[in-house]
């Protein structure tokens, strides 16, 4: 670039036309200039173009940058580009980054790879990453993983690792493979969470908040997870969902499952609610009646209130009025 008379403020397009495949030479020339904002901008543009054609060479050059020239940022950018062509090489090159940055970068690289081919990405990760790295990689790529394949991967973890992973999944969104599993095999989803997350005692969740939303949006931990699984289970098969609820051990997960089940049935299939409630114990009956009536009233407030009055349940009546008021305040009043 110097030989052709271009300075730091040269037009980048013209510079790249001159440099062409001589990106390595251009890099060496640019590094002869003192550190400045202008040089940094030129380096960034050079690396962007260089990585498109030769990401391995661009990464090697980025690793030689001094810290003040944005070495770590440049290396990370080159790893992301390299991963599109050679994800294994990119993951194996995270050693070029400071130790504190490596785990997050591995997560990011595996997530990107899994978005293109989750079987290949997670199969490689299982065979080549250590326990902690693999856990983080699987969590990062969870939205791309087939639920059945995800369960196979989890089976290779230690009980402690599965427990940690289950707790992470509880805080994740519905795209996580463990939550998607509930739509096709709710029993497997329930089994995983019940077996791998310590049971919480009941009473840690605001029931009124849950009843007013009719969803897991206001719930935390096991309660929110159980509500989501119950709703998916009803969509899969209401009768199977009801049978599954009878198998759950006491605790916060069961309570959340009952709430989610009642809310979903009350909205979509209220005819199943009455016979189900009749077979429950008093404490569960009050909880379920209120949740079912709340969601039922959002769809058909008159029928929900009539049912609540006929059932002679203050909890059901309170739930029906809550649902009606949230849907039609003037009518409820």
Give the fraction of residues assigned to helices: over 70%
Shape: elongated
Beta-strand share of residues: under 5%
What is the H/E string? HHHHHHHHHHHHHHHHHHHHH
Radius of gyration: 28 Å
Unreliable parts: 1-12, 203-219
Span from first to last CA?
Answer: 79 Å
Number of strands: 0
**Largest sheet composition:** none
Distinct helical segment count: 21
> Mean pLDDT score, rounded?
83
Structural class: mainly alpha
In short, what is this structure?
The chain has helices spanning 12-19, 23-30, 37-53, 55-62, 71-85, 87-92, 99-128, 131-140, 147-155, 159-170, 177-184, 186-196, 207-213, 221-236, 238-245, 252-268, 273-278, 282-299, 301-311, 314-327, 329-332. It is mostly helical and 333 residues long.
Give an overview in words.
The structure is a single chain. The chain has helices spanning 12-19, 23-30, 37-53, 55-62, 71-85, 87-92, 99-128, 131-140, 147-155, 159-170, 177-184, 186-196, 207-213, 221-236, 238-245, 252-268, 273-278, 282-299, 301-311, 314-327, 329-332. It is mostly helical and 333 residues long. Helix 7 crosses helix 8 (131-140). The longest helix has 30 residues, at 99-128. It starts with 11 loop residues before the first helix and ends with a helix.
């Amino acid at each position: 670039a110097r030989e052709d008379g271009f300075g730091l403020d040269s037009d980048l397009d013209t510079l790249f036309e001159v440099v062409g495949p001589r990106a390595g030479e251009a890099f060496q020339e640019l590094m002869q200039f003192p550190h400045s904002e202008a040089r940094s901008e030129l380096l960034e543009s050079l690396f962007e173009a260089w990585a498109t054609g030769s990401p391995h060479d661009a990464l090697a050059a980025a690793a030689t940058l001094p810290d003040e020239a944005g070495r770590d940022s440049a290396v990370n950018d080159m790893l992301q580009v390299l991963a599109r062509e050679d994800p294994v090489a990119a993951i194996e090159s995270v050693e070029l980054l400071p130790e504190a940055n490596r785990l997050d970068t591995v997560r990011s690289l595996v997530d990107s790879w899994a978005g293109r081919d989750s079987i290949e990405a997670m199969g490689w990760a299982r065979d080549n990453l250590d326990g902690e790295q693999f856990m983080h990689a699987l969590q990062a790529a969870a939205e791309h993983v087939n639920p059945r394949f995800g369960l196979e991967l989890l089976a290779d973890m230690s009980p402690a690792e599965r427990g940690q992973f289950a707790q992470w999944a509880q805080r994740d969104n519905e795209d996580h493979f463990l939550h998607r599993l509930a739509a096709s095999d709710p029993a497997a989803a329930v089994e995983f969470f019940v077996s791998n997350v310590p049971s919480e005692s009941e009473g840690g969740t605001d029931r009124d908040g849950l009843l007013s939303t009719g969803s897991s949006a206001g719930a935390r931990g096991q309660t929110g997870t159980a509500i989501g699984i119950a709703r998916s289970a009803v969509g899969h098969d209401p009768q199977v969902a009801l049978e599954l609820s009878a198998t759950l051990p006491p605790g916060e997960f069961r309570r959340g499952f009952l709430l989610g089940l009642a809310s979903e049935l009350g909205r979509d299939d209220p005819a199943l609610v009455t016979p189900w409630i009749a077979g429950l114990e008093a404490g569960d009956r009050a909880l379920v009646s209120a949740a079912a009536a709340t969601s039922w009233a959002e769809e058909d407030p008159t029928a929900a209130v009539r049912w609540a009055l006929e059932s002679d349940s203050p909890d059901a009546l309170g739930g029906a009025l809550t649902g009606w008021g949230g849907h039609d305040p003037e009518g409820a009043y």
